[in-house]
Amino acid sequence: RAVAVDPRADTVFVGAPGRDTAGNSSAGAAYVCAPNGGGGWSVRTTLITSGPEAGDRFGEAVAVDATGETLVVGAPEAGETGAGAVYVFDRSEGREADRSGTESKS
């Protein structure tokens, strides 16, 4: 699994490329986790692509910028040719990352 830590240390992002999503094997997901107040961590949001396909492996790579506001998630097998895609999620005004993502195919 891929893991990225928000530099402010209040959020952890975990990729799960083997997760079955919307009935699609290994379409993948990414989890946004935060402290739960009881000394542990809880999943606050599950991120998936807007059109998950079997084998996309969304979540194979995750990275967060130095401000903790932008999350990048890789899906190395996404797209019609399997060339892969990168999804960018932005947090704004204290809300969790935009679930829709912006796809940039290589």
Tell me the fraction of residues in β-strands, as a range.
Answer: 35-45%
The stretches of 5 or more residues where confidence is low (pLDDT under 50) are 93-106
Query: Mind summarizing the main beta sheet?
Result: 4 strands, antiparallel
Mean pLDDT: 83
Explain what this protein looks like in three dimensions.
The protein is mainly β and 106 residues long. It has strands at 3-5, 12-16, 29-35, 41-47, 61-64, 70-75, 85-90, 102-105. The strands form two sheets. The chain has a four-stranded antiparallel beta sheet, with no helix packed on it. Strands 5-6-7-8 form a four-stranded antiparallel beta sheet, with no helix packed on it. It is globular. The two termini are 22 Å apart. Mean pLDDT is 83; it is low at 93-106.
Q: Which keywords apply here?
A:
single chain; mainly beta; 4-stranded antiparallel sheet; globular
Per-chain topology:
Elements: E1 3-5, E2 12-16, E3 29-35, E4 41-47, E5 61-64, E6 70-75, E7 85-90, E8 102-105
Antiparallel strand pairs: 1-2, 2-3, 3-4, 5-6, 6-7, 7-8
Can I get a quick summary?
With 106 residues, the chain is mainly β.
